[in-house]
Amino acid sequence: MAFSEKLNGYWEEGYHYYLEFRDDKMTLRRYDRVIELETTVSYDAAALDHGERTVITPANDRISSGLSGNMMREIHELRYVNGVLELETHDYADEYRVYTLKKVENGPFSHIVIRDDEFLEGLQGVWKKWGSNSEGNDLVITGNHLKWGIWGEGDFHVISYNYRGNYDPQHVYLVPADLTRDSFRGFTKFDVLPDMLTTQMMVYDMSVPTTVFAREDMLDKIRVPGSATRPAVNTMNNTDRPVPINFMGLGMNGFIGMMMPQPDITAQTPPPAPQPQPDIKPDSDAKNSPAVLADGSTFCPECGTKLEAPIPKFCWNCGCRIRE
Fold first, then answer.
1. pTM for this one?
2. Nearest to 140, CA basis, from 152, 125, 130
3. Where are the domains of the chain?
């Protein structure tokens, strides 16, 4: 079977799906770059090369399934139309949706700079959790493998983000080796800071205080981020009012999909409550505002992730605060 170079490559919708074609191989990723479907496809390459409307037929059309194996979402039709791809899905609620994907030059992780060679050697060994004497809270790094007590473990990369040339080498993170956000169970990303590793978690829209790790001989010398001393707050209600949380009943599944905003490393005491900020308007020219696109979406100012309106309070990818 012949295949079209016009189809081969990367196709991005922006909010929900990212497609890659290599001859008869198709990879479908969701918005956070996690693979949802890998399959082979067939289509009329000659018709596609001539610019004609062409249906692309996957050998497997099931995007996701429920716990019982029933269909949650499937590809109803994938077609090439006027230089774009239209992905029409059908879900368990009998709803049909069409997503338009445009061809892009770069792959799904082109904004990530892997920095293992610079940092990996200095990260090896045991890191102690600040404020805890329990060995079960030790974080141990061996090679590219990270293990945090009973909370989770997995392989990782040391990375920074480079979005459209906006590269800040001072912002360094540990992320799962497959560069997606679900792999470590109890956590997803660590900030690498001088003499410490920090993480802040999101659980059911609750902002959980930053966890700080340091070498044993530095525990009484590091400047602990102020956010580590703050109680959990409910981000859904847009308030810094402390909210009581019983984490003991959540179980491990309650910790999947956490995000870590960049901590404040300049303060040792809780910072003042944030002041209300004006809503971001499409015609805003504020230099520190996210870039607002014509279609109403935004780019995260920290990592460049596309965000769907209405503008969220936190970026789902890197966790930085988008608005108050």
1. 0.57
2. 125
3. 9-104, 112-273, 274-324
